[in-house]
Design a protein that fits this description.
The complex is a heterodimer.
Chain A: E1 4-9, H1 16-25, E2 30-34, H2 39-43, E3 55-58, E4 61-64, H3 66-77, H4 84-108, H5 113-141, H6 156-168, H7 181-192, H8 194-202
Helix pairs in contact in A: 1-3, 1-6, 1-8, 4-5, 4-6, 6-7
Chain B: E1 4-9, H1 16-25, E2 30-34, H2 39-43, E3 55-58, E4 61-64, H3 66-77, H4 84-109, H5 113-141, H6 156-168, H7 183-194, H8 196-204
Parallel strand pairs in B: 1-2
Antiparallel strand pairs in B: 1-3, 3-4
The chains are: A alpha+beta, B alpha+beta.
Chain lengths: 208, 210
């Protein structure tokens, strides 16, 4: 029995896609969450290959970088796509949501109020809508968008999307998913998968 | 034999690791380069899923996102790592270097002279040294860093590294000797530059600033 330990801060952030993969695959793991005050010690401990979180430790090996971790877990549990083509399409869609996450980080940590407002507005009126339109098109290209992003089964592309929507729905006024009914339907569909539903109901509630 | 078509700017940029993959695997492909002034028109053609480049077209399928393309080709050509764990290490290194190159691109893209100098100084005193130091450490854990970054054959992580060292070793970064403290990384770069299939590509490819 392989032992997995996932370490991250006390939030969804860049670890949630991996937690969703563990949930979807029904694989047990140690979900370690550390407070910001504990981070400096961990960062200099040498456990994190590039000094970042999330960190996956498995069988004495350490993997960093959120998508390296997610893709590894997806490949181990059959949630990565069935062929190299499918895997590439999964990657492409997952990266689109990673880019969205990176854009959110830009204004989340901006201290200048005016700049923050500007970046937030650009995100909500240009960047997010553009990405959501593009991924909705890709969803529609797969069996009319009635299933999942790639192939016939759920993959970590759907889970990266779900993790991303956790953040997007916080912008209540922008109603980002309202303009994309197929994406909203996908969100419902993925959230309703029994193992995912259980995780969503039992996971810690966190601001990020 | 599938027909591959890569479309990107006439830069190395985010296309070069893909071109290096084709070179390493000795696989033919169409290397389409769009000039900056033609991009606004091309962008609207509808064939770019995210209105961005690079894209790879193969067997009627279009793949966007440079690392989705790179990983796809690496998987097709056996240059991705031999096990899931090796593949994860390759991904980790590639993503880390991607984070680093964004810092480097910001220096290139900054037009204000003073701000450019500021960004340059910041990059060469913080992010670049710390990342390269961590990379050398990870490299040494792999058979003492005498071979390739992951496993015991070349992977696309080595090609990302090679493509990025071209920035560290040219202006405005060259004067800071960013690879000087890292003997193993310097040796890896030399080893890669000496690989015949890569050498051939480096000799014939168009010369571009970035």
């Amino acid at each position: 029995m392989v032992k997995y330990t996932l370490t991250y801060f006390e939030g969804r952030g860049r670890a949630e896609v991996s937690r969703l993969i563990f949930a979807a695959a029904g694989v047990k793991y140690e979900d370690v969450r550390i407070g910001f005050d504990k981070w400096p010690a961990l960062k200099t401990s040498g456990r994190c290959p590039f000094g970042t979180l999330p960190l996956l430790e498995v069988d004495g090996k350490a993997i960093g970088q959120s998508f390296a971790v997610a893709r590894f877990l997806a490949n181990e549990t059959g949630l990565a796509g069935k062929t190299n083509y499918e895997k590439a399409q999964v990657d492409m869609i997952a990266y689109a949501f990673k880019d969205l996450g990176d854009e959110m980080v830009k204004f989340a940590f901006e201290s200048d109020e005016a700049k923050k407002a500007e970046l937030t507005k650009k995100f909500l009126t240009e960047i997010a809508p553009k990405t959501l339109s593009a991924v909705e098109k890709l969803l529609e290209a797969n069996n009319g968008g009635k299933g999942f992003f790639v192939g016939k089964e759920v993959t970590w592309a759907d889970l990266a999307f779900l993790a991303s929507t956790d953040d997007l729905v916080q912008f209540k006024d922008a109603k980002l998913l309202a303009a994309h009914p197929k994406l909203e339907a996908l969100r419902q569909r993925v959230s309703a998968l029994p193992k995912i539903k259980k995780w969503l109901e039992t996971r810690p509630e966190t601001p990020f | 034999m599938p027909k591959y078509k890569l479309t990107y700017f006439n830069f190395r940029g985010r296309g070069e690791v893909i071109r290096l993959l084709f070179a390493a695997a000795k696989i033919e492909y169409e290397d389409v380069r769009i000039e900056m002034e033609n991009w606004p028109n091309e962008k609207e053609s509808g064939k770019f899923p995210f209105c961005q480049m690079p894209i790879l077209e193969v067997d009627g399928i279009t793949i966007a996102q440079s690392y989705a393309i790179a990983r796809f080709l690496a998987n097709e050509f056996g240059l991705a790592g031999e096990t899931n764990l090796e593949r994860a290490k390759v991904d980790m290194i590639a993503d880390t270097l991607e984070d680093l190159v964004k810092v480097i691109y910001r220096v290139y893209l900054e037009n204000d002279k003073n701000r450019k100098e500021e960004l340059l100084k910041e990059a060469v005193t913080t992010k670049v040294p710390s990342t390269l130091a961590a990379l050398e450490k990870v490299f040494i854990q792999n058979d003492e860093g005498f071979g390739y970054l992951v496993g015991d054959k070349m992977t696309w992580a080595d090609l990302v590294f090679l493509a990025h060292t071209e920035y560290y070793c040219s202006e405005p970064f060259k004067q800071y000797g960013l690879l000087n403290p890292h003997a193993k990384l310097r040796a890896l770069r030399e080893r890669l530059l000496g690989e015949p299939r890569l050498r051939r590509w480096l000799n014939i490819r168009p010369t571009t600033d970035v």
